[in-house]
Amino acid sequence: MPRSVNGFGTGLCRASRRRVVSGGEHYDAIEAVTAVWCPLIPYRVIHVIAQTYDWRRPGESTYRFIPLRFSWSTICRASFHAWGGFLSILGIGGTILFSIASFNMEREFTSTDAAFIAAFAAAGMIGVLLRIVSWVLSRRSERIKDLLGPHECGFSDPFEWADEIANDVLTRLQMTEAELLERAYHLAEHAPAEAGWYLRLNQRIRNTPAADNLLETLLSARTWHQ
């Protein structure tokens, strides 16, 4: 399990919105070597199902998770979200505090003071931009999770499951690619969440225009779990 001291060590960096079911938090994340709680070297991509903290051991946490495929999209979302938050707080807070301090000093305002304020402001703007990029990159993934709703593997997207998880589920189902798609079509009208689950398994095996069109229909119908 990740362990850090004041944000330095190893830790979880969130890559999707938190969804709470029966007191448990569900979200995509990466495990990474961290500095100031932000990822430096990612080493695993997971979907957290439940996470608990022990006040007697600060910086440590335990959780259950589903392993996901190593995905640069998930890594980028988690990295942009974490670093964007850190730079936003540092930049905006630094700009405000340094501006107040500079304009209340007895000496004259200098070009060095202006440079510090500009640097903090730039850091803040970069942080906000990274948060916006993270949000844009997450939109489709979040819509799919909302469509699927909670299931035996949390809110995880079957398309993103690690091979061992997906293969185990497919072995239990004993369904072909065509049968998965047929089941998704059959369930689309009256059980869109279940239809989405079968559809994402189908797309994992082989994505087709027909599957893409059905997914867009399910997402645009706005009948998914809230």
Précis, in short:
This protein is of the alpha+beta class and 226 residues long.
Written overview of the protein:
The protein has 226 residues and is an alpha+beta fold. The protein folds into three domains: 4-73, no CATH class; 79-138; 158-220, no CATH class. It contains six helices and six strands, in the order ββββββαααααα. Strand 5 (38-53) and strand 6 (61-67) form a beta hairpin. The longest helix has 38 residues, at 111-148. It is elongated, with a radius of gyration of 22 Å. The protein starts with a strand and ends in a 6-residue tail after the last helix. The mean pLDDT is 90.
Layout of SSEs?
Layout: E1 4-5, E2 8-14, E3 19-21, E4 24-35, E5 38-53, E6 61-67, H1 72-103, H2 111-148, H3 163-173, H4 177-187, H5 192-205, H6 209-220
Helix pairs in contact: 1-2, 4-5, 5-6
